[in-house]
Specification:
This protein is an alpha/beta fold and about 375 residues long. Helices cover about 45% and strands about 15% of the residues. It has helices spanning about 10-15, 15-25, 45-50, 60-75, 85-90, 110-120, 135-140, 160-180, 185-195, 195-205, 210-215, 230-245, 285-300, 330-350, and strands at about 50-55, 80-85, 100-105, 125-130, 145, 225-230, 250-255, 270-275, 300-310, 320-325. Helix 12 (about 230-245) packs parallel to helix 14. Bound molecules: fructose -6-phosphate (F6R). Fructose -6-phosphate binds near residues 58 and 105.
């Protein structure tokens, strides 16, 4: 049942090329137009949307952070992302033109369910991004995008997250198609990039041994930091969460630009810091990240970089580099998260922890 793997989590990490391919399957017509099966909202309703609020918890919330960047960029619809338990209890501003997007692997998370009930009671439309057919959240939503990852057994979400990203991208592109904010060719271009992702993820999985060696090396770390910017910031948060929940060691994710506003005080000799380096490009994201890396290295951090395979800027500042394929910045989370999942799984396993059933955690949190 674990396909020769020691843990369900490891099996599910390795299933991601398939899961991502399945999440993309059957989403466009022969003419190249995107179609979403259970998009029960009419094109007119989607054109009327004037604000999107994404609500979720934990890993699904981090998928929501990535979704905001992509959906705003492609559609110019203002997006907010909010932890479902915060959203529900602060009297958020909701109208019938607000689209609330609930992201939940299980479809049973009580906090997220309460958030959508509240949104519907205010007259807002709700769309669920969910992995579990027939679960409560999609049943109580106006529309659904199923992520088709297959059952996720390990408590820590892995293929759940990557397919939530895919569904979020599809939603953004679909809205762009309906509202005419992107040309058909542009949409097809992004879909084509998405279709390369299973191969890219497989390429990273094939190089697992280097990541496992890093885990062996860091087995006695007391604290690990993660830095990212732009779409790499949620990846940093997710890398840290995986390490907390599986290895029970202190881990924090930061936006790299925030370092000088406080967190840089944490940097000390030998502190491991994973850094998600944005793709090389014309904007300044990449170079700003490199200078942040220089700053922490000068203060003794052990820099573990995730960077594009042909990026010449990283080697001088890296204690280790994990190479990523060249992909657009908004899609980079799909590849950058994989080494961090492998790292957390391997480290926890080496420490003798139950990777599939971390202490104090349940797979779906059905109480508020
Ligand atoms: C972390 C993890 C949790 C869930 C969160 C939401 O690895 O699994 O943070 O992501 O409890 O669960 P769903 O997506 O089922 O609503």
């Amino acid at each position: 049942e674990k396909d020769g793997h020691d843990w369900f989590m490891r099996k599910e990490i390795f299933e991601q090329p398939h899961a991502v391919a399945d999440a993309l399957l059957g989403r466009h017509s022969p003419g190249g137009r995107l179609q979403l099966d259970e998009m029960r909202l009419s094109e007119q309703e989607l054109r009327d949307v004037d604000k999107i609020i994404l609500v979720a918890c934990g890993t699904a919330f981090y998928a929501g952070l990535v979704a905001k960047y992509a959906i705003e960029h492609w559609t110019r619809i203002p997006c907010e992302v909010e932890l479902a338990h915060e959203f529900r209890y602060r009297d958020p501003i909701l109208t019938q033109d607000t689209l609330v997007v609930a992201i939940s692997q299980s479809g049973e998370t009580a906090d997220t369910l309460m958030a959508i009930r509240h949104a519907r009671a205010q007259g807002s439309r709700v769309l669920a991004i969910c992995n579990t057919n027939g679960s409560t959240i999609p049943r109580e939503s106006d529309a659904v995008i199923y992520t088709h990852a297959g059952p996720e057994i390990g408590v820590a979400s892995t293929k759940g997250f990557s397919t939530q990203l895919v569904a979020s991208y599809l939603l953004g592109l679909y809205l762009a198609q309906v509202r005419g904010t992107m040309y058909g060719d542009e949409i097809r271009g992004v879909v084509h990039e998405l279709e390369q992702m299973p191969g890219h993820i497989q390429g990273i999985l094939d190089r697992k041994d280097a990541i496992y060696a890093l885990a062996a090396d860091l087995a006695d770390a007391r604290s690990v930091l993660f830095l990212g910017r732009h779409a790499g910031f949620p990846v940093a948060l997710e890398g840290a969460l995986k390490l907390k929940e599986l290895a029970y060691i202190h881990a924090e994710g930061f936006a790299a630009g925030e370092l000088k506003h406080g967190p840089i005080a944490l940097i000390e000799e030998g502190l491991p810091v994973f850094c998600v380096v944005p793709p090389q490009g014309r904007d300044q994201l990449h170079d700003k990240m490199i200078s942040a890396i220089q700053e922490i290295r000068a203060r003794g951090a052990r820099t573990l970089l995730l960077a594009e395979e042909d990026d010449p800027a990283v080697a001088p500042y890296a204690d280790s580099v994990i190479y990523l394929p060249r992909v657009p910045v908004l899609l980079q989370p799909l590849v950058a998260v994989v080494p961090l999942q492998l790292f957390a799984c391997e480290l926890a396993s080496r420490m003798g922890h139950d990777v599939d059933q971390p202490r104090n955690l349940a797979k779906s949190v059905t109480v508020e």
